[in-house]
């Protein structure tokens, strides 16, 4: 699903034109993507490479093996927040569940029973991997729901987030249910491993904000100049009108004096 994948994984708008045609041995486009990748189109793999089919948890185990010489068993990192208390039964359930073998999200799990603990392990592995592949290690739950068929998720997959509070954190900020990968953030809420795309995004947003502030400042300055010009024009117009009225009054007084003198000269009684 092209449009959803672009939003989730931060793909460029032209990746269908610039990336997919250059690798026909890896990708194949099925369907019509439409002008804005909103059509009914899917991106498929034409070949499978086991070397690339490793989850973030498996890659972490490989890195630790390179450092200490012994590869630890791949498993989830449980990171409960401060003050969060689990009852004894819940702690035992989490301990036993973590002891189960790790099920890779790329493994063929066709024979797993949906209600088995292994299926739960596979479900958490898929959700963990999807969030690990995202730029900010978080995603809106409705967006994940768009891939239920591709990831073989049940309609109640979102309940897994509340069953594993040490792995996921659910936020309702902005009225949107968003799931966050706990291990990806530190105690201050900052990403531990920041993707370079985030740096570019923040720089772009900062430039846009600065340009918007300059635009608003220029608009405010122009409005102030326009208000001053209007006030000056009104003041000048009122002064001109006052001068005209004073001139009319002086002219009328002179006319009255002239008429009075003329009447006296003619020997007539003034009215």
Automatic annotation (TrEMBL):
Q: Where is the composition biased (Acidic residues)?
A: 243-258
GO MF terms on file? RNA binding
Per its UniProt record, what Pfam families does this chain match? Answer: PORR
Classify the source by domain of life: Eukaryota
* Domain named PORR: residues: 1-212
Query: Which positions are tagged coiled coil?
Result: none
Instruction: Give the matching InterPro entries.
Output: PORR_domain, PORR_fam
Annotated region (Disordered), positions in chain: 240-271
Q: What is this protein called?
A: PORR domain-containing protein
Which species is the source of this protein? Aegilops tauschii subsp. strangulata (Goatgrass)
């Amino acid at each position: 699903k092209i449009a959803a994948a672009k939003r989730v994984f931060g793909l460029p708008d032209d990746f269908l034109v610039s990336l997919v045609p250059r690798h026909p041995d890896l990708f194949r486009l099925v369907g019509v993507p439409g002008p804005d990748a909103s059509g009914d189109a899917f991106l498929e793999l034409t070949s499978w490479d086991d070397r690339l089919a490793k989850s973030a948890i498996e890659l972490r185990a490989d890195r630790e093996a390179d450092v200490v010489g012994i590869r630890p068993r791949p498993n989830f990192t449980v990171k409960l927040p401060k003050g969060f208390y689990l009852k004894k039964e819940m702690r035992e359930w989490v301990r036993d569940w973590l002891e189960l073998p790790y099920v890779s999200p790329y493994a063929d799990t066709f024979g797993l029973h949906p209600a088995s603990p292994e299926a739960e392990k596979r479900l958490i592995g898929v959700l963990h991997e999807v969030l690990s592949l995202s730029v900010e290690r978080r995603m809106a739950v409705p967006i994940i729901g768009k891939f239920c068929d591709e990831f073989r998720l049940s309609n109640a997959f979102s309940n897994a987030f509340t069953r594993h509070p040490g792995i996921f954190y659910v936020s309702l900020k902005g009225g949107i249910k968003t799931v966050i990968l706990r291990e990806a953030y530190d105690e201050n809420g900052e990403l531990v491993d920041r993707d370079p795309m985030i740096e570019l995004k923040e720089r772009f947003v900062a430039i846009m904000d600065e340009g918007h502030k300059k635009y608003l400042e220029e608009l405010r300055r122009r409005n102030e100049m326009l208000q001053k010009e209007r006030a000056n024009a009104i003041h000048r117009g009122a002064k001109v009108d006052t001068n005209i009225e004073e001139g009319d009054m002086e002219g009328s007084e002179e006319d009255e004096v002239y008429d009075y003198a003329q009447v006296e000269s003619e020997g007539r009684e003034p009215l």
